Amino acid sequence: MNRSTSIVVLLMLLCASAIAEKPTKPSSPADYAGWYRIADSNTYIPVLSDPDGHLSTVGPRGIEVRLMPTPDGELEWGLESSSLKGTRIGWDDAMDGYYIAIYDSIAAKMIENYESGKRQRLDRLPKPPYLPDATTSAPESINDYLGCYSLLYMPIIRFQISKSDSGYSAKIETYQDDGWTSSGAEKLEAAPDETGFILTMGTKKLPFRYNSTRKRFEMLMPEAGEVSTPLFRLPNCNSAPPYIVDHKFRIGIPTWT
Q1: Closest Cα partner for 65 from 220, 215, 234, 173?
Q2: What is the band of 93 on the pLDDT scale with cuts at 50, 70, 90?
Q3: Percent helix, strand and coil across the chain, each to the nearest 5
Q4: Is 129 in contact with 121 (CB distance < 8 Å)?
């Protein structure tokens, strides 16, 4: 994707950010589903819904984490063993709008005068127009997984899954102006039931699978709890990323780590 295309995407973001929706006080956690921008910033935060409830994303790579309903009808960070425990999205009557309160125990230790839990206004916006639909048809066999997959929320990183006489492997690649550059290949093992692969990176074993409920591919991170990174399957391995966003724009709840 060339520079002019990147500029077009940037302009689309600016236009979308200018069309904030009029806030309406939610009557239940289900009403929080949508996209938000932290006021006076370029940080976009989704509240996604699925059959099990709600999720949001964190960090630059767009890891999805479960949000849990609170007794007062708001949404709270769902991972117990996490530096962001206590982070909450809700409604503030004084602001007459949505807010996010971020509790980051690591940032509190590293940043002088860090305001843990400070309520920041959220402007509700339409879904970013550049974000592709990650849903796709289910693979019928293990070889149907062969191909290239970008991280949905950071598409300049992708996995290329291939097969050779020695077995399956995944190349991890990053995109620059002159195309894709590989940072090495990792061995893949077929999952016991052949419903995906296990990617070994150092001491970590990360399941790569098709989620039949959400109809998409994803990478699981079991050591962090019930979290996953959604993947967008590229039409072919010669494809550029589906979009490139200026580095000033971020998707996901900000975190120190």
Answers
A1: 220
A2: very high
A3: 10, 45, 45
A4: no
Residue 159 has a CB neighbour count (10 Å cut-off) of: 21
Q: Is the pLDDT of residue 11 over 50?
A: no
pTM of the model: 0.83
CB 254 within 8 A of CB 37: no
pLDDT in tens, 101-111: 999 988 888 88
Residue 107: per-residue pLDDT: 85
Half-sphere exposure of 157 (CA within 13 A, CB side): 14
Are the C-beta atoms of residues 161 and 237 closer than 8 Å to each other? Answer: no
CA distances from 188 to 32, 129, 232 (A): 38, 34, 19
d(CA 154, CA 189): 25
Q: How far apart are CA 66 and CA 21, in angstroms?
A: 25
HEC-encoded secondary structure of 33-81: CEEEEECCCCEEEEEEEECCEEEEEECCCCEEEEEEECCCCCEEECCCC
User: Which structure tokens are listed for 71?
Assistant: 């007794």
